[in-house]
Amino acid sequence: MGYCQEDLVSDICAIYQKLSALESIKPSKEVNMIFTNLVQLCVPPSPVEVTKLPKHIQEMRTKLIKICGEAEGLMESHYSEILGSFESPLDHLDLFPYYTNYIKLGQLEFNILSQHYVGSPTKIAFVGSGPLPLTSVVLASNHLPNTTFHNYDIDESANTLASNLVLAEPDLSKRMIFHTRDIMSVTDTLREYDVVFLAALVGMDKEAKVKVIDHLAKHMAPGATLMLRSAHGARAFLYPVIDPCDLRGFEILSIYHPTDEVINSVVIARKTEVAVHHMVDQGIGAMFLPCKSEIQALKHGNIMEELTDC
User: Fold this and answer.
1) Confidence check: pLDDT of 302 > 80
2) Is the pLDDT of residue 301 over 80?
């Protein structure tokens, strides 16, 4: 039996207070232990619905997600620097504590993409690739050997660390391209990508996330695929949740909620043929928004939702 909702939320609030009191959330024995405890609380399946929690709890959750995002960036930078000190950094990826999770997530996302994308994409954009672009590395190395990955991050230092990891790899160094850009300033180029991945921590609050999605809806090519990461149940205390009705201009194909150590839910959507950007600019929602879901299948405890139009 799992926690009751009140106890779970109370324990998460206590961890938030601990994290808020720290002078630094850079990787350390204490910091790592606190975050490990937080993840252990949030990962087990839970019926908690964060949108129905009291306002002060939702405000705490927003702050906690930002702390988690900052800590994740610091941890990735820390390990990227360590890996970059080796002659062949990619031979030592297992030094990163969550590398196995990325292997599983990469396999999951590739399987979901393969179900909805015919053939192999030529160009993929990963938005918010960070200093340790493991998703791009895993997909490029294990699943999509002929695809070019364009990694976008707003932080130049993150891209410097990331690009250093693939310099020693003749193949990957040609297929992994790094752009130091705010994705909100990228327009026509977005039409060149067959698939766009949006990292979970690009837009760490609802308003910012929706702005990025609307921008992608305006500039991606019709028929292109959007892969997003969301969260389900108590995992929503760690990462932002994407509501299906936030995806204006996209047809949602499926949402998959893992129940194992892979934390993020995976959302896959297709840019519609309808030119919705005028409606987006005017703040008018499209009439074809998919916002009803039914659970299609339960396999090995994982939940797959197939969405139908309202």
Assistant:
1) no
2) no
Phi, psi of 184, deg, nearest 5: -70, -15
| DSSP SS3 for 268 | strand
Which one, of 166, 175, 199, 170, lies nearest residue 93 by Cα?
A: 166
Whole-model pTM: value is 0.87
Among 112, 304, 92, which residue's Cα sits nearest to residue 225? 112
For the stretch 81-106, pLDDT in tens is 999 999 999 999 999 999 999 999 99
pLDDT category of residue 204 using cuts at 50, 70 and 90 = confident
- Tokens read off for 17: 């207070």
Q: Phi and psi for 153 in degrees, rounded to 5?
A: -145, 145
Helix (H) or strand (E) holding 163: helix 156-166
22-36 core/surface letters (b: 16 or more CB in 10 A; e: else) = eeebebeeebeebbe
Buried b (16+ CB within 10 A) or exposed e, 70-109: ebbbbbbbbbbeebbeeeebeebbeebebbebbbebbebb
Instruction: Say how far apart CA 249 and CA 262 lie, in whole Å.
Output: 28
H or E element, residue 304: strand 302-309
| Contact call for residues 299 and 261 (beta carbons, < 8 A) | no
* Rg of the chain, C-alpha, whole Å: 19
Among 268, 123, 126, smallest CA distance to 197 is for 126
